[in-house]
Amino acid sequence: MHNSQIDFIPILMQVFLAVGFVALTIFGSSLLGPKRSSTNKDKSFECGIESVGNARIPFSVKYFLVAILFVLFDVEVIFMYPWAVNFKEMGVEGLIKMSIFMILLLIGFFYVIKKKALVWE
Length: 121
Prior knowledge:
Elements: H1 9-32, E1 45-46, E2 49-50, H2 61-78, H3 80-85, H4 87-114
Antiparallel strand pairs: 1-2
């Protein structure tokens, strides 16, 4: 199969269309949108709660560790979906590979439990 540069023109057109639409939308909203500014409007506001104190308060490392572990185990679970869909076609070889994957996943999970990374203090 031989590809030429002409075959990439539809892709480039789609990229230019997407970038142009985004640029036009941002530029158009800045021209058409209201430009009213006030001290009350410019205040920081989130979730209906007034901001109190400094926003640069350091978080506990445990918070980030739990978040990273959640993402890690969530991504590993996502890898199990294609295996479940193609279970019959993969046969015994796929079962062995998935068993190794699950054993490594469980070893990591038990390591996290042993290190008490999920204990919230």
